[in-house]
Every structure is written in structure tokens, then in C-alpha cells.
Amino acid sequence: SVRPTSVVLTAGSFPGTAFGMYPNGYYGTTFCSRTNSVLYIGTTGQEYLETTTVDIPSGGYIQFDLSTGCGTVSSDFFVEVHYISNSTSGLAPRSTFRTGSGWSYVLPAQCNPALAAACDSWAGTGPPGTLASNGDITYGGTAWTGGSMYFSQDGGANYWGQAQWTRVTLPLPAGADSTRRYRIIAQRSNAGSTGIWGIANLFIGTCPLGCSGRGQCTAGGCVCDASAVLDSNTGSCVISPSANLITSLRETFDGTISQSQWSAIEGAATTTLVVAGSGPTMRFDSPANTAAMRKIVTVDMDCRNATYVEFSLYLYSFSSQNFQIVLAYSTDAGVSWTSMTTSLGQVTATTNYYSVPIPAAAQVFGVRFMWWQPFFGSGSPDWTLDDIYIGPPS
To answer: 364 with 303: CB under 8 angstroms?
Structure first.
């Protein structure tokens, strides 16, 4: 039989032929103001949504809206995105834990941009952890090798409170074998842990550039967000030319932190304990035994005339060279990132000052910047950030 070339879950009746299983899931129940979501309320059984076998051409994406608690996160758990490929012996049996029985992560684990040039560009921002010598990342005694994982508390750790829904856009794995099944699954640290979560507006299939992170993938093409317009050349979305983007950013963390400059701050709070620049600083010190991220991300900016990113950075003592801070930029609303510089070689226990040239690829209308610590764990340093300036010569 001819296999479907896309999977769509939007408003309307549940497309049962597109999904093989969704144990302990509820469709059609209003959750976080959505009536088209698949809701999971935390049970002792498996919780996942699995497609039937599909045949999606290369260049495809998986996109969905995710909520882990609808504003209140009650427990620690991961939501992970997996796939399994066809083989000469047929599709492997379903897994009951992690990625056993042939399942793999849609995104591989993030390698360290500070230690390998091959890691300068990546998709998404996977959860942090302790990087083991074999390349695995460990959290809570469990090792994983995937980047398509979302920690329940990351939304709750946002500086302004948890967003009810977050859009996830991931490129599908490359490879000659496009015949696969996909699943979105909750992984809990113990059988008794609870915590509601839901997914909505799921699409798996061909999508031009993943709508560049600024629109919804559909079977008919990109449906752009209100702040974006369709690019007739690519079929993707770009920020509307009439959008009122800031052309410079200056932040000393001395007063109220403004959402007009920052889209996300996680694993951090202002403090006066360590002087990175002058006065209060932003200190990143989320506990090493959690999977909460340590990152800060600007809003989209108009950097066509900007030349430098300047900031001061203070690091506590390192126990491993893996625990570096990365400055990166994204021109597609965070779907993909490119490294600009890292803290490798910085002197610890003192304030270091940076002036980083903005590359030509980032001197565009609609770019955001991120300071991020991809790996941290036991013995990793806290760090503080201050006196940030992005813009034309000041």
C-alpha cells in the first residue's frame, strides 16, 4: 500500500489512520485553551503519541506545540521526540523505555561548540547535563544521546513564568531510508511521578525551511505568524518588513529586566554577589542536579548596522573544560544556531571583557543572540553576565 507522506493533527476529528498508538492520551479535551490537543495527565503507564509508518521525502520537519503543565509544572519529566527506520527485517518492536528496540532521537546530542569546530552550528537547544567520555550526557544517573528532549521545568524556569504553549520545530534526520515511524513520548524518573502535558498542531512532512521558525507548517505550506510574511522565493516565512525591531540593546541588569529586549532567561536571577561589570549582574546558577537550562536569549533585532556584541563575563572555577559558555546567533527564531565565540581559555574567578564582531550572516533584519551553557553538572561553575551592548559603534 502507498504510505502517507505527511502526518497532520490540527482542529477537527482525530486522524486515527495516521497514528498507531497514543496510550493514556485524551484527544478533544480542552487543555490550555486548546481543543485540538492530545492531553496526558500523568499515569503509571506509558504516555506517547506514535505515528503509523510514513514515507516522508528528505528535507522534512516535525513541528508541534508543547505544553508541560499549562503554567504550573508539578514534577520533573522529559518529553522526547524519537523515530525508527524501516529495515530488511521490518520495523523493530515498540520500546518500553528510552530509545531501546531501535528507536533513535530525531536530533542527536549536542556536541560542545567550545571544543570542536564541527559543532559550530546546531539545531535547537537540548537539555544540559554532564558530558561523559563516551559522548553520552547524564542526568540523574541516566545516560542519553539525544538532543530532541524537552525538560518539563524549562518552561517553568523562564524568567517571566512558563509559557502555556511552546512551538517546537525540528528537521527530520537525513538518510536514504525515509520510511519511518515517529513518536513523542514522556519519560519520567519513576513510575509514580505525575505532571500533565499536551501536544497540539502536530505536523510531520515537507515544510519549507521549517517556516524559518516564524510560522506553522501545514500540508498546504507555511501559514506565517502575525509578525511574519511569506517569502515568495523560498515558500518560508520572514519577519514582516514593517515589524518594529530594536536596532540596539544595552543591558546592565540594574533595574527591571525588560521583555522588550529579552525573549527568554532560564536558570538565572539578578544578584550582587559577584561583580562582573558593576552593580547587579545576571547570575546563572540553576542546580547542577537538575536539567533546567542556563541561557539568556534576546528578542529578534535589526542588526543591519550593528557591528559588535560586547559584554562582561565572570566564571567560577572549572572542574572540566566541557563547561563553557557559548555566544550564538539565530536568524530563524531559534530553530538553528551558529556559534560566535565561547569562554574557552577565559581566566576563572575574575571578570573578562568581550567585544565580538557580528558576522555578516548575522547583520540582518531578524536575528537573535543567545548566551548558553550547553553542559554543566557536579562541579560546574556558576557564571554571571553584565554590561551587554549590541549595536552600531557606541
So the answer is: yes
Nearest to 98 by CA among 189, 166, 195, 203: 189
Check: CB of residue 79 under 8 Å from CB of residue 223: no
User: What tens digit of pLDDT does each residue of 174-213 get?
Assistant: 876 678 889 999 877 655 566 788 898 999 999 999 999 9
Residues 330 and 215: their CA atoms lie apart, in Å, by: 16
Going by C-alpha positions, the residue among 324, 352, 233 that lies closest to residue 222 is: 233
pLDDT at 92: 44
C-alpha cell at 184: 513523542
What HEC string does the chain produce? CCCCCCEEECCCCCCHHHEEECCCEEECCCECCECCCEEECCCCCCCEEEECCEECCCCEEEEEEEECCCCCCCCCEEEEEEEEECCCCCCCCCCCCCCCCCCEECCECCCCCCCCHHHCEEECCCCCCEECCCCCEEECCEEECECCEEEHHHHHCECCCCCCCEEEEEECCCCCCCEEEEEEEEEECCCCCCCCEEEEEEEEEECHHHHHHCEEEECCEEEECCCEEECCCCCCEEECCCCCCECCEEECCCCCCCCCCEEEEECEEEECCCCCCCCCEEEECCCCCCCCCCEEEECCEECCCCCEEEEEEEECCCCCCCCCCEEEEECCCCCEEEEEEECCCCCCCCEEEEEEECCHHHCCEEEEEEEECCCCCCCCCCEEEEEEEEECCC
Rounded Cα gap, residues 266 and 140, in angstroms: 20
Q: What is the mean pLDDT of the chain?
A: 81
CB atoms inside a 10 Å sphere around CB 252: 15
| Higher-pLDDT residue of 144, 282 | 282
Q: Are 185 and 198 in contact (CB under 8 A)?
A: no
Q: Note the pLDDT tens digit of each residue in 22-64.
A: 788 888 778 888 887 888 887 667 888 888 888 887 779 999 9
Please count the other Cβ atoms lying within 10 Å of the Cβ belonging to residue 306.
Answer: 21
Q: What is the pTM of this model?
A: 0.88
